[in-house]
Amino acid sequence: MLAKNSQAMHLFRKHALSLTFFASKLAPTKNFTKEHAMELRPWTVLLGLVLLPSLSLAAGKCERLVITGSPDAPPLLWRDPQDPTHLIGATAEVLQQVGKDLGLKIDLLYGGKRSLALDEARSGRMDILADAPLNLVELDNFDYIHPALMQTDYLVWTRKDSQLAYTSVADLHGHKGAVSERARLSAEFETFASQQLSLQRLPNLTPAFQKLLLGEVDYVLAGRYSGMAMAQTLGMSDDLVAHEEPVDQPGLYLAISHNSACNDPWLRGQLAKKMTELPASGVAQAALQRNLERWKAQLQQPVGTPTQ
């Protein structure tokens, strides 16, 4: 899974030469002969070997990162129909660009359904979980990279002729709603919803939007992009409306496993820097738009494909 960084040996040679020069300066300059230099060489090599682990750490330990995540969260991540061992999507594209910038090879691998992918990352068999909601319990297993890689806007979707006037979450009281079991809502909103809202959980967005159109529920909670793609695919775009005020905006973080041999200060620092730069770069937004179209095209194919 892992490959040692060749920069470490380059740094070792560089610092070994510096140590030889330093040792020569410490020795008496008068009558300092070639024989004296030969006697100092074993000591400089020994010092170099002592310093090698720290030099390797400074350069970064890994040339390859194996990353996994949810296989059912388009347009962010889903299983590649052409190569089911890999994940594709907006998150995958952004991470490939980050890896290129850092000189790292990135492999986005399918680790099973969400719970299995989490286990793979916890164990260290996968280095990073790509779309981890912030979870205090998992701090024993992961280092979360701040800020979040992606932020998902969950919107309230209603029929265009609905009498539900939505401006805030308080307007949902007393109305029946639906949400996909695959939704990645924040822990805070999940607690609020369980106590204050009447939400029916359905396997994916298809039956949720169908129930909404039939009037069996008053609203559906769905991601901005996943809801848009599904509504268009089901031919419901003219019948449904997404209210712009998000009901929840959970962040999805890179979470590096404590058991990953790649988890070191250099990697965490570089990833945090890249996450900080992302919002202003426009890279994530462009990737979302491309993969929204990619997912919509896949849904329209006649062969059976997974749906959110």
Description of the structure:
This protein has 308 residues and is α/β, with parallel strands linked by helices. The protein has 3 domains: 7-59, no CATH class; 64-150 and 251-299, Periplasmic binding protein-like II (D-Maltodextrin-Binding Protein, domain 2); 154-248, Periplasmic binding protein-like II (D-Maltodextrin-Binding Protein, domain 2, 3-Layer(aba) Sandwich). Helices cover 43% and strands 22% of the residues. It has 9 helices and 13 strands. It has helices spanning 7-26, 34-59, 90-102, 114-123, 187-196, 205-214, 224-233, 265-281, 283-299, and strands at residues 64-68, 72-73, 77-79, 87-88, 105-108, 128-133, 142-151, 154-159, 176-180, 198-202, 219-223, 240-248, 251-257. The strands form 3 sheets. A 5-stranded mixed β-sheet has the order 5-1-6-13-7, sandwiched between helices. Strands 10-9-11-8-12 form a 5-stranded mixed β-sheet, with helices on both faces. The chain has a 3-stranded antiparallel β-sheet with strand order 2-3-4, with helices on one face. Helix 5 links the parallel strand 9 (176-180) and strand 10 (198-202). Helix 1 packs antiparallel against helix 2 and helix 3 crosses helix 9. The longest helix is centred in the N-terminal third of the chain and has 26 residues, at 34-59. The radius of gyration is 26 Å and the shape is globular. The two termini are 30 Å apart.
